[in-house]
Every structure is written in C-alpha cells, then in structure tokens.
Amino acid sequence: MKPTPNTRLSNRALAFVLAGGRGSRLKELTDNRAKPAVYFGGKTRIVDFALSNALNSGIRKMAIATQYKAHSLIRHCQRGWGFLRAERNEFLDILPASQRMGETKWYVGTADAVTQNIDIIDSYDIEYIVILAGDHIYKMDYEIMLQQHVNTGADVTIGCLTVPRMEATAFGVMHVDTDSRITDFLEKPSDPPSIPGDPDHALASMGIYIFDWKFLRERLLADMEDANSSHDFGHDIIPHVVKHGKAMAHRFSDSCVTTGLETEPYWRDVGTIDAFWQANIDLTEFTPPLDLYDNAWPIWTYSEGVPPAKFIHNEDGRRGSAVSSMVSGNCIISGSTVTESLLFTGVRTHSYASLDRVVALPDVRVRRKAQLSNCVIDRGVEIPEGLVVGADPDLDRANGFRVSEGGVVLITKTMIEALNAKR
C-alpha cells in the first residue's frame, strides 16, 4: 500500500522495544540492572536512544518489553517518559514478562516477547510495527525506513550496517541481490557474503525489523505452534520470511541522523566493558564521533532538577579543573584534576585526586589523593582515600577489581566493600 500524500507512516506505526536482556558481557554493571538501563553519555540511559529515535521519527505509540531485573528500567521510563499523553494518542506502555500465557512461561525469545502481547498490540490499532533492540547507541529516522518498507512491498525490512566483510562474523549477515532483496540470512558466518559490487564489505543486521502488523501477527501465531522453534526473530522469524516471503535490506546510511560533525554513520553496541568505556570516552573528543549537542534530534531522558557543576580551590597542586571532559550537573570538582573523563550527575572529587580517562556513573565519591585512570566506576561507589587504580593491572586484580581484556578496570560497590573488609 502506497502512503497517502502528507501522511507520515510513523503515525500508523508502533515502536516495540525489546529490553529484557541482561547483557552479561557487561559483567557486574548489569548485576542490578538490565543492559538497556545502563547509564551512557553523562545523563542518559542506553534505552533512551531507541525511544528518542522513535519519538523524533514521529512514532508516538511505543511499547517496551522488560524481563531481567527490570525495576531500574521501568522506573526510568516512568519518570523520564511520562510526558507522553494518552488522550493525544501517544504513549509508552511497559510490558513486563507476566506469565500471561502460562504460570511458568516467561519471555523465551525475542519473538515470544511480541507473541505474548498480541492482544495488547491489537488494541493499538496500528498498521506497522517497528521492532527495536533497546541496547544500542545511534541516531536514526525510522520514517525513512518505513517508507522503503511500504514502497517495496516487503514482508519485512531489516536495518543493516555496512561493515568490513570479515568483521561481520560477529553479526547476522544479509546476502542481498542488486535490488537489496535479502536472499539469505546467515547467523555469525565464518565467511560472510559481500555486498554486490563491494567485495570488501557486508551487510550486518542491526536488530531493527519493520513488518506490517497483520503479516507479523500471523507469522508469530504459526511460530508459537512450532515445537522446534526457539521463538526468536534472528533464528526463526527472519529466516522463514527470507525463504518464503520478501525480505528487504535497509542501509543505515540512508536514514542515519547526523549534524555534519560526524564523519561516518554512528552505531555502537556497548555490550562489553571495553566498548562501553570507549564509547563514553569518545564523547570527550574535540570532535566526537557522535554529536549529542543536536537540538534538532534530542536524546530525551529523565532530567533531574540539580544545580550546575562547580569547580573549587585554586592552588598549585590543588586546583579544581577538568580538561577535555564532560561534567554533568551537581558535580563538585574540589581541588582535583579531571582529564578526558566523563562524569555523570552528582559526582564529587576531593583534593589532590586525579581522574584520567575515567567514566564515573552517578553519585560516585572520590576521596583525597586517589589516583584513577582507565576505569569505569559504578553508581554510588566511594573510592577510598589514596587508592591507585589503572596503573598496575596485577594490583587492580589483587584489590578485587575486574580488569577487562583491553585493560579497563571496573569498580563496583561490592568490590570496594570487599577491599575495605581486607584492610
């Protein structure tokens, strides 16, 4: 069906965000929160990017499926996204796994998370459903992808990244023809197929799928009856549609939102400690790869009413300063030095301390003379006076901290409590 003139397809679409996963590769950062609820960029959470993309694209109907340790995520959505007004036909519904289809049945796969809510989605009276992962960092206009979906008459349209061919071994990879029709879907292939006319690159799935709701509804009900199915989009639904229907690839570069400062389309899976640390530290660069200062495409979130950041003391060796850093509201940099670091709301650093390439989540306290480098500090951690982190990996491990493959040190409350108990 062709869109009628002056009618945005997004007005007839639902954004369904899959946000139930733990994100175990983030280790202790997800001990008490789901990966989509992990903090990012100084004041936002990871899930805010998918939700903001939907809102900025004109999609005013949204639902988010939660499961693993969902309290932090649900609370954030209630507080940060409560501005949507149901009487204006806009909403964000939270759909926790609630054993709706059996007393022992939680969400058992990404597709099952949609299947268990079919009756709720039916009540939304939508034509299209945009399935989104809630754990990636990017800016994208879904309306452009919706237009391609409708104009090509696709059964499913899949958002795809253009990546170096051999880097695609970690993704689901699309084998496409010259018209971008998907002829095969390969999960983490050892020898990924290249893009026609571009032998050095492949198309990797972003975990973004657009369906006509009627089509997906029928496919989900059929999949539910298949005892051999894992009830997952990537493993079951998408391969079936590729084989028996019309699946089209949508290139992220066609709908990526940029301000002109970005040199290439930006998409990150911050699913490891190293990737999470690097993506946050990248934001402190003179020209960061992701422009968060874009008022035309804001990343909406819960904004606390807090005072501005403050820098105090101005003595040699005891000067409150921050260089090439992002410092959020309610931070007090007291007689300490901060370089190439990202500090979330409410961080306090005390005299003679130094922070170099540090990601400090909200309400961290850094006591006097602590020397910190190349680390991620979880929310509410109090760094003891004089503690040195990031200079000696063996010492960091001996102190009970997690040292990543890339040498980034993760510090949590539990680790600090265990360290204090040994002292």
Automatic annotation (TrEMBL):
<dbReference type="InterPro" id="IPR029044">
    <property type="entry name" value="Nucleotide-diphossugar_trans"/>
</dbReference>
<comment type="similarity">
    <text>Belongs to the bacterial/plant glucose-1-phosphate adenylyltransferase family.</text>
</comment>
<feature type="binding site">
    <location>
        <begin position="187"/>
        <end position="188"/>
    </location>
    <ligand>
        <name>alpha-D-glucose 1-phosphate</name>
    </ligand>
</feature>
<keyword id="KW-0547">Nucleotide-binding</keyword>
<dbReference type="Pfam" id="PF00483">
    <property type="entry name" value="NTP_transferase"/>
</dbReference>
<keyword id="KW-0119">Carbohydrate metabolism</keyword>
<comment type="subunit">
    <text>Homotetramer.</text>
</comment>
<dbReference type="GO" id="GO:0008878">
    <property type="term" value="F:glucose-1-phosphate adenylyltransferase activity"/>
</dbReference>
<keyword id="KW-0548">Nucleotidyltransferase</keyword>
<dbReference type="InterPro" id="IPR005835">
    <property type="entry name" value="NTP_transferase_dom"/>
</dbReference>
<feature type="domain" description="Glucose-1-phosphate adenylyltransferase/Bifunctional protein GlmU-like C-terminal hexapeptide">
    <location>
        <begin position="307"/>
        <end position="411"/>
    </location>
</feature>
<protein>
    <recommendedName>
        <fullName>Glucose-1-phosphate adenylyltransferase</fullName>
        <ecNumber>2.7.7.27</ecNumber>
    </recommendedName>
</protein>
<keyword id="KW-0320">Glycogen biosynthesis</keyword>
<comment type="function">
    <text>Involved in the biosynthesis of ADP-glucose, a building block required for the elongation reactions to produce glycogen. Catalyzes the reaction between ATP and alpha-D-glucose 1-phosphate (G1P) to produce pyrophosphate and ADP-Glc.</text>
</comment>
<dbReference type="InterPro" id="IPR023049">
    <property type="entry name" value="GlgC_bac"/>
</dbReference>
<feature type="site" description="Could play a key role in the communication between the regulatory and the substrate sites">
    <location>
        <position position="67"/>
    </location>
</feature>
<feature type="binding site">
    <location>
        <position position="205"/>
    </location>
    <ligand>
        <name>alpha-D-glucose 1-phosphate</name>
    </ligand>
</feature>
<keyword id="KW-0067">ATP-binding</keyword>
<dbReference type="GO" id="GO:0005524">
    <property type="term" value="F:ATP binding"/>
</dbReference>
<feature type="site" description="Could play a key role in the communication between the regulatory and the substrate sites">
    <location>
        <position position="106"/>
    </location>
</feature>
<dbReference type="GO" id="GO:0005978">
    <property type="term" value="P:glycogen biosynthetic process"/>
</dbReference>
<dbReference type="InterPro" id="IPR056818">
    <property type="entry name" value="GlmU/GlgC-like_hexapep"/>
</dbReference>
<feature type="binding site">
    <location>
        <position position="172"/>
    </location>
    <ligand>
        <name>alpha-D-glucose 1-phosphate</name>
    </ligand>
</feature>
<comment type="pathway">
    <text>Glycan biosynthesis; glycogen biosynthesis.</text>
</comment>
<feature type="binding site">
    <location>
        <position position="107"/>
    </location>
    <ligand>
        <name>alpha-D-glucose 1-phosphate</name>
    </ligand>
</feature>
<dbReference type="InterPro" id="IPR005836">
    <property type="entry name" value="ADP_Glu_pyroP_CS"/>
</dbReference>
<keyword id="KW-0808">Transferase</keyword>
<feature type="domain" description="Nucleotidyl transferase">
    <location>
        <begin position="15"/>
        <end position="284"/>
    </location>
</feature>
<keyword id="KW-0321">Glycogen metabolism</keyword>
<dbReference type="InterPro" id="IPR011831">
    <property type="entry name" value="ADP-Glc_PPase"/>
</dbReference>
<dbReference type="InterPro" id="IPR011004">
    <property type="entry name" value="Trimer_LpxA-like_sf"/>
</dbReference>
<dbReference type="Pfam" id="PF24894">
    <property type="entry name" value="Hexapep_GlmU"/>
</dbReference>
